[in-house]
Amino acid sequence: MCTTGKLGKVVRIVRVLRVLRVLRIISRLADAFRRLNEILSRIITISFHLVPIIALMTVAFYIYCMVGLEVFGVAFNPPGGKEAADWWDPMANFATFGGSVMALFQVRLPSLPLPLPLECTTF
Q: What Rg do the C-alpha atoms of the chain give, in angstroms?
């Protein structure tokens, strides 16, 4: 490659322009990361505001579980025994606290598959 004369100057200019193009790409990436950092910081700020609401919902869910245990825990038995009833779910009932949590989740989220797999129901 000849670097003397006019051709050499053109080659140097092209090389400088290549470096500037890489620097422009780096500056665009830095700007994108600044925007991503801003979005993540806003999500974290919003999540701190959601903590009291989630805590209140958890307390309400716990209260409903305890009320279900007291009201339906002992007194509710399917007619003909638990084995005879095809609708009786042995994992999601109000006989235990874990079962009452599962029953309330199934009532609250009806799109969940019924019954849930066994590994999801151990407490």
A: 32
Across all residues in the chain, what is the average pLDDT? Answer: 76
Q: What is the CATH number of domain 5-120?
A: 1.10.287
CA distances, 68 to each of 92, 93, 100 (Å)? 12, 9, 7
pTM: 0.50
Distance between CA atoms of residues 26 and 113, nearest Å: 48
Domain ranges, ordered by start, for the chain: 5-120
Give the residue-averaged pLDDT of 59-72: 88
The DSSP line for 12-77 is HHHHHHHHHHHHHHHHHHHHHHHHHHHHHHHHHHHHHHHHHHHHHHHHHHHHHHHHHHHHHTTT--
Average pLDDT for 75-79: 62
